[in-house]
Amino acid sequence: MKKASSLVILLSVAVATPGFAQSPQPIESDGYAVMMDFFLRPAGIVGTLAGSALFVGLSPITALAAIPNPHAAFEKLGNTIVCKPFKYTFARPVGDYDYTGDCTRRPSPPISNAQRIEPKPAPLRAPP
After folding, report:
1. What's the angle, vertex CA 112, arms to CA 110 and CA 115, rounded to 5?
2. Average pLDDT over residues 107-121
3. What is the pLDDT of residue 45?
4. Mean pLDDT of 100-105
5. I want to staple 51 with a disulfide (CB 3.0 to 4.6 A). Which of 6, 41, 81, 105 is the partner?
6. Is residue 96 a contact partner of residue 27, using CB atoms and an 8 Å limit?
7. Residues 96-102: contacts with CB under 8 Å, at least 24 apart
8. 115 C-beta neighbours (distance < 10 Å), count
9. How far apart are CA 78 and CA 101, in angstroms?
10. Residue 80 has pLDDT above 60, yes or no
11. All structural domains of the chain with their residue ranges
C-alpha cells in the first residue's frame, strides 16, 4: 500500500511540475469574479460535452458541407462548438471573461529557397 501511494504521489508531482514553467500575467479580479467562475466552469464543462455530442451528430451533414472549397467545415464547426467552450472552461484564467482562446491550427510557413540547405556533392577523387 505504501508503494502504491508513493507511486501516486510521485506521478502527481511529475505531471504537475511542467505547469510551474509558465508565469501568466496576473489578472485583476475581485471575489465576485471568482464566485461567478464557480458557476461558469461547470456550465462550460456541460457545454463542451454537449458540443462534442452535437459535433458527432452533425458530422454527416458537415461532411457534405466540406465538399466545396475551402474544405474547412469540420475545423470551423469543431472550433465553434467544441474547442472554444473547452478553452473557455479549462484554459481561461479565473476572472477573465474577455478570454478568446484561439483554436485555429496554423501551418508552418514554407521555407524559402534562400533558407533551404542543399546537400553538397562529395568531391571526386582522382584515380591512382
Report:
1. 115
2. 67
3. 94
4. 74
5. 81
6. yes
7. 96/27, 96/29, 97/33, 97/36
8. 7
9. 13
10. yes
11. 60-91
Amino acid at residue number 102: D
Using alpha carbons only, what angle is made at residue 88 by residues 63 and 11, rounded to the nearest 5 degrees? 100
Alpha carbons 91 and 33: distance in angstroms, whole number: 16
pLDDT (0 to 100) of residue 47 = 93
Write a three-state SS string for the chain: CHHHHHHHHHHHHHHHHHHHHCCCCCCCCCHHHHHHHHHHHHHHHHHHHHHHHHHHHCHHHHHHHCCCCCCCHHHHHHHHHHHHHHHHHHCCCCCCCCCCCCCCCCCCCCCCCCCCCCCCCCCCCCCC
Residue with cell 474547442: 83
Residue 23 has pLDDT above 70, yes or no: no
Owner of C-alpha cell 507511486? 7
Burial class (CB in 10 A: 0-12, 13-18, 19+), 77: buried
